[in-house]
């Protein structure tokens, strides 16, 4: 027998106790029809044949079923009295103690019955079920499962197939989550026909090619996540024009290039934007960020956008995380970032070409957990009057790789250099007001002692000659 989670065993035992009490209600509660009952048993066997499903759950599966098998009641069209019951959700793969779905065995397969025998199925969920032999969608003409609204496959490395092969038979989908699988090929134009779609998450697969223009037809889309694939080419500007309901856009870790479309400024409700680690060109940080007043997180790291950080922060008080690392940014850090981003918890500006001082306005940030300014060309005093941010240099405030920076407090310098989880680099103690700097010889020049190592003896000899002359 294949092993399964202890909590699931406890639920099975408890279910047997409950079954006897539920039999008294059988006369008034409609039962699952025999065809769906049999199909459910066979699907459970295909997921984990090591569990004796029929003996553990011998009664009506809609009255007593394993977690993950969900039924709903339906009224007949021309009757107010007659009701039927059908399986509407099937979830497999142990997730946690709070959602102990039927655990998948090593030899779990994707049964064709899932797509032919459940005329009211709305949700199909697989988590970490297919890890060994390749599994793909059955090549059959799907019948009644056109009612499917949620299709979720998470972390199934042996689930293989083209996206068109997965989606070709479904038209009522509201939510598609295929992440951490081996779905390959181009994003097909048929995706644009899923007009009810509210979430399309296809991250961590092997998708390639360009983002199709057909995605712009998804006007109800709230979440679009195509991250960690092999997509290339330019982003269609039409995406930003029609998708005004979008809350999350994640295109990170692909090979996208060209310019970030100005039409993205139409995402007035957008809260999460991640375009990091692509090949977007040197057109600077987009000014349209100032129009995204609902924005909470923005990541552009790893794109060589260049230019200066624009002063677009006045209307972005909801922002909590900004990732602008390794972007070729130049010039000063705008003081407005500290003045307006009151809720900021993370700011990454490391590995750029930034100059000037660290804005004192950063001391106004009450909730910040990390400000990473490493490996720039910043200089001057690091001081935040009235704030404890100075004491957190090396931890919250990371400054390594900026040899021109200094601090006034010797204790702060000592703490930074001895911080176990931070960095300080070449940070040094500032010279006091009015203190003359030590003369520094020109590079390549020699001091008198270095140029004339025996000059002392020569002078002494001249003095002796003068005395006895």
From TrEMBL:
PANTHER family per the UniProt record, alphabetical: LEUCINE-RICH REPEAT-CONTAINING N-TERMINAL PLANT-TYPE DOMAIN-CONTAINING PROTEIN, OS01G0149700 PROTEIN
UniProtKB keywords: Glycoprotein, Leucine-rich repeat, Membrane, Repeat, Signal, Transmembrane, Transmembrane helix
One cellular component term from this protein's GO annotations in UniProt: membrane
Subcellular location: Membrane
This protein's record includes keyword Calcium: no
Keyword Lyase listed: no
Alphabetized Pfam families for the sequence: LRR_1, LRR_8
Subcellular location, principal: membrane
Parts of the chain that traverse the membrane: 451-468
Protein name stated in the entry: Piriformospora indica-insensitive protein 2
